[in-house]
């Protein structure tokens, strides 16, 4: 995983995921990316990155914009083109549960960040997604 900062879209996996989202016209890519988090006991880091990107996209769809930069450009354009999509409450609840799993010891992404000097900043950034999702 090529990572250059702590943000949701500050890694190759999430940026690649955005290209997959760009080809869709509904929530199917988002739902699929979140659902994968629940399928394994030990969550792969790439799956966690994709789930976080999907969750960030949901948050943007419900009008709670986060960081806007060149790495979020594809997602921001997708959200703008699909503003009419209503995010079901059940998907928001599933996204909240996914964040909890990503922030657990069963997550490879959590373990990788735990070994870095930026763990606390990354964890706070992921927690900010949960906060924006619930308010």
Q: Explain this structure to me?
A:
With 135 residues, the chain is mostly helical. It has one domain (12-134). Helix content is 61%, strand content 0%. The protein is built from seven helices and no strands. The protein has helices at residues 12-22, 28-35, 45-61, 73-81, 89-102, 108-114, 119-134. The model has no long low-confidence stretch (mean pLDDT 94).
Give the amount of beta strand, in percent.
Answer: under 5%
Based on Cα principal axes, name the global outline. globular
Counted by DSSP, the helix tally is: 7
Task: Output the structural class.
Answer: mainly alpha
Secondary-structure element order, N to C? HHHHHHH
Rg to the nearest angstrom? Answer: 14 Å
How many β-strand stretches?
0
- How much helical structure, as a percent, in the residues? 55-70%
Main pleated-sheet profile = none
Mean pLDDT: 94
What is the rounded distance between the termini?
A: 31 Å
Number of domains: 1
Are there runs of 5+ residues with pLDDT below 50, and where? none
Keywords for this entry:
135 residues, mainly alpha, 0% strand, globular, 61% helix
Summarize, please.
This protein has one domain. With 135 residues, the chain is an all-alpha fold.
Which helices and strands appear, and what pairs or packs with what?
Blueprint: H1 12-22, H2 28-35, H3 45-61, H4 73-81, H5 89-102, H6 108-114, H7 119-134
Helix pairs in contact: 1-3, 1-4, 2-3, 3-5, 3-6, 3-7, 5-7
């Amino acid at each position: 995983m090529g990572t250059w900062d702590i943000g949701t879209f500050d890694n190759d996996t999430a940026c690649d995921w955005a290209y997959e989202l760009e080809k869709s016209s509904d929530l199917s890519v988002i739902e699929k990316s979140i659902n994968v988090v629940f399928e394994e006991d030990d969550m792969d880091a790439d799956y966690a990155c994709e789930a976080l990107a999907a969750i960030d996209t949901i948050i943007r769809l419900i009008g709670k914009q986060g960081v806007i930069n060149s790495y979020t450009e594809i997602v921001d354009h997708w959200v703008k083109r699909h503003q009419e999509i209503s995010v079901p409450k059940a998907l928001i609840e599933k996204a909240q549960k996914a964040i909890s799993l990503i922030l657990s010891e069963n997550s490879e992404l959590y373990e990788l960040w735990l070994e870095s000097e930026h763990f606390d900043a990354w964890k706070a950034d992921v927690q900010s997604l949960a906060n924006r999702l619930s308010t």
